[in-house]
Amino acid sequence: MSYSDGRLSMDLDPLERGPQDACGVFGVWAPGEEVSKLTYFGLYALQHRGQESAGIALSDGERIVVYKDMGLVSQVFNEATLDSLRGHLAIGHCRYSTTGSPVWENAQPTFYTAREGGLALGHNGNLINTPELAALLPDTRRNATTDTEVLTNLLASRARDGSTVEEAAMELLPQVQGAFSLVFMDENTLYAARDPQGIRPFVLGRLGETSGAGGWVVASETAALDIVGAEVVREIEPGELLTIDERGVRSRRFAPARRKGCLFEYVYLARPDTTIAGRNVNSTRVEVGRRLARQHPVDADLVIPVPESGTPAAVGYAEESGIPFAQGLVKNSYVGRTFIQPSQTLRQLGIRLKLNPLREVIQGRRLVVVDDSIVRGNTQRALVRMLRDAGAAEVHVRISSPPVLWPCYYGIDFATRAELIAANLSVDEIAASVNADSLAFVELDELIAATTVPKNDLCRACFDGVYPIEVDPAARGKYLLEKSCGTPEGSTLATSTK
Hints:
Blueprint (H helix, E strand, L loop, with lengths): L22 E7 L5 H11 L7 E7 L3 E8 L2 H4 L2 H6 L4 E7 L14 E5 L2 E8 L5 H5 L12 H14 L4 H8 L8 E5 L4 E5 L8 E5 L7 E5 L2 H6 L2 E6 L4 E6 L2 E6 L7 E2 L1 H6 L5 E2 L2 E2 H15 L6 E4 L5 H11 L7 E3 L12 H6 L5 E3 L1 H4 L3 E6 L6 H12 L4 E6 L21 H4 L2 H8 L3 E4 L2 H8 L6 E2 L1 H4 L28 E5 L1
Parallel strand pairs: 14-23, 17-20, 20-21, 21-22
Antiparallel strand pairs: 1-4, 1-10, 2-3, 2-4, 3-24, 5-6, 6-7, 7-8, 8-12, 9-10, 9-11, 12-13, 15-16, 18-19
Helix pairs in contact: 5-6, 9-10, 9-16
């Protein structure tokens, strides 16, 4: 979650994670298969992309049923629920709110009735022209509270006015600006669309002999294809609309590709076992660690990671530097989304709720501590204090990304620029602020080189302030739509009949 003043909750609440992506999306067309369970497992693999809510929309050819609720995928669905959701195609979504409040009404997939049935949609990313799109809605439907709801409403409205869903999408998508990996469906067809910049990852897979199933799958990351036994076919191209039904997969282009894939996916957001643009994320992170060691060596006894996202870079740093690698911090795997609020006493324990030092490993040692990023600095400050309390002789912090200097408008919940520590302090000043003996960041060009993706094909805005799509900050804001309308009422289960 984030707070209304733009602060990242990871820096205030030790029960929360770091920089958060908008969501994870999954879609499957597979007649004769248990698509609800395939979708469940796909969402389970994408849980790291959003932990606030989860939902599945499913069709049996006659009606769409949407089931969604607040909580983790495993909290929202059980086997009895999944057994009751029968059909031949489904879409799924796990949400972290970057537009709209973290409430049931804003959970996805969203749903509206179209001309001959229903339309359900899930969205990963953030739009930057939401007010202009909302102005296109009929007066009776201008109560949308998220950019995703606006999109769903517009598609359904145009389909209801005589266009097919595919025609409506080809008409609407060229007008949509920002980051979007979309999965949507009517009663018989699965659709997938990716913004012309391809900011968020999105892939197409084939269910075949290895899984015993037959059909097609789309997902935010290749790891979700792996877990359901699907073979990766290719990335969905920027500016491409896929239509999947009994005739197979058909591709149409609604805009030319202008590739600007998110660089921060390689740093933190994506799973390490995911492949983006042909490059395994874990391999990229290990290579970044090697480059970080060459750029910023230090005389030390141990290299320890901040688990888990700092681990691959720490491995690379240790390999390149020759300094032994050690697990100096133990992570509590069960700290995450919780409905039990910590008391003030527990808050004062800070990061110990999430990490605990191995005193026998740390005591008397000079440490290189490798982490993926610094946003506001509070987490690193607490971490350094904890390591010193455990007896560390020296603490040298190494960061496997450049300083985060600018906010993201495309689906990552960073702080405002005023609260980004690197936007207001020099590296030496940050080191003093977190009480580290030394601090260093990998250079931007070194991070880019590690991805093997051309610099001009990456969105680097959070690091260099160069936004691939022009943004008017005055027209942005997490609660932009909620300021002008009430929140719609809803229930956990929604259906449509064709």
